[in-house]
Write a structure and sequence with these properties.
Layout lengths: L15 H10 L12 H11 L6 E4 L6 H7 L5 E5 L2 H10 L6 E5 L15 E5 L5 H12 L7 E6 L3 H8 L6 E8 L41 E8 L22 H56 L26 E3 L4 E4 L2 E4 L5
């Protein structure tokens, strides 16, 4: 199944309750892929993301894209989604596929992962959460490692996406691709020339489409491939660095980017502090439980020491009332001929009176 922007509505897509109910109600419908299936995206994924890459799939839902990637040779894909229902379904479905891992998580709070946890992030259909893009940057770019990838598949054109992702402070090289919706056919009489969907679309200096560019499909999907480039001197903390050596074309934008950088570092510091407090609270709980268990063991030991041992009961002799057996004494009999009296195994002489 596919979904494009024509099906978008005013549902609260940020509410886990909505998604849990939806996945329960649509369980019989099977898997659901937003926008595009893997076979259409494969040229872009294989071009930019190595099969050995540590991949984070945000907003995975119950789509089969990760499964298709594993079949295509990918070895390590972490899938996250806000719906616990979807995650549990997918865990059971792929419990025997070690390359796929599933974790319930809100992309607006991915503090569970450490910085630099992934080499690549794929965002297919998570358009309503641009904040996820900023958080994904932290997951792949804290150590400023080059050639890290964030790949977004969206219905948002450059006018609404580039202002958020094409900022100097990120230092990403952005390649734009445009592909039509699945099943799109040119209307009869169309004179537009066919375009190669696997070639980057030329953009202006600000990442916008040229004024004369015509979309083959008015409802096309846009693919933004953000590749981490060698370090930007704006971000290098060096004594030789001077703002006077940098040409600023947009001072306000530069200021906003710096403010954002400071803000995200503050967020991470606050997050680390919260984790530390949570760890201390858990440690206190473990210590309290251990003390309780120790007290219970001592109480049981004292109780065992105070209580006398139970007396052993003597077994009563067994009597068979139905068939009592009594020892009968044999009476001796006399043999008149030889004058001997027999009783059991003994023999005695009988004195006779003549």
């Amino acid at each position: 199944m596919f979904m494009d922007e024509s099906a978008c509505n005013t549902y609260n897509y940020g509410d886990s309750v909505y998604w849990d109910a939806r996945y329960i109600n649509e369980a019989s419908a099977g898997s659901f892929d937003w926008y595009q299936r893997y076979h259409a995206l494969r040229p872009f994924v294989r071009k930019y993301i190595p099969t050995s890459s540590r991949v984070l799939m945000v907003g995975c839902g119950n789509a089969v894209m990760s499964e298709d990637m594993v079949k295509d040779g990918y070895e390590n894909i972490m899938n996250v989604d806000i719906s616990c229902v979807a995650i549990e379904m997918m865990r059971r479905k792929y419990e025997n596929v070690p390359q796929l891992k599933y974790l319930q998580m809100d992309v607006r709070d991915m503090g569970f992962f450490l910085d630099d946890s992934f080499d690549s992030v794929i965002d297919k259909g998570l358009d309503l959460y641009l904040i996820s893009f900023y958080l994904c940057i932290l997951l792949v770019d804290t150590n400023h490692t080059i050639n890290r990838i964030i790949l977004q598949i969206t219905y948002g054109d450059p006018t609404v996406r580039m202002p958020h992702i094409n900022r100097p402070v990120y230092n990403w090289k952005i390649d734009l691709y445009i592909i039509p919706r699945p099943g799109f056919e040119k209307p009869p009489g169309s004179t537009s020339s066919p375009k190669s969907h696997v070639s980057p679309v030329p953009t202006t200096d600000k990442g916008m489409l040229p004024a004369d560019y015509i979309l083959e499909d008015p409802d096309s999907h846009f693919i933004y491939v953000c590749t981490k480039m060698p370090e930007n001197p704006l971000l290098i903390d060096s004594p030789a660095f001077s703002l006077a050596e940098v040409e600023l074309t947009d001072t306000d934008q530069f200021h906003n980017d710096l403010v954002f950088s400071v803000h995200r570092m503050e967020m991470r510091l606050e997050e680390v502090t919260t984790r530390l407090e949570l760890t201390e609270a858990r440690l206190g709980l473990v210590e309290a439980r251990a003390a309780t268990a120790e007290a219970m063991v001592e109480a049981i030991a004292e109780q065992v020491a105070v209580e006398p041992a139970p007396e052993e009961e003597e077994d009563e002799p067994f009597e068979d009332e139905e068939d009592p057996v009594e020892d009968e004494q044999e009476e001796p009999f006399e043999d008149e001929e030889d004058g001997l009296a027999y009783s059991g195994n003994s023999v005695s002489t009988i004195s006779s009176v003549n």
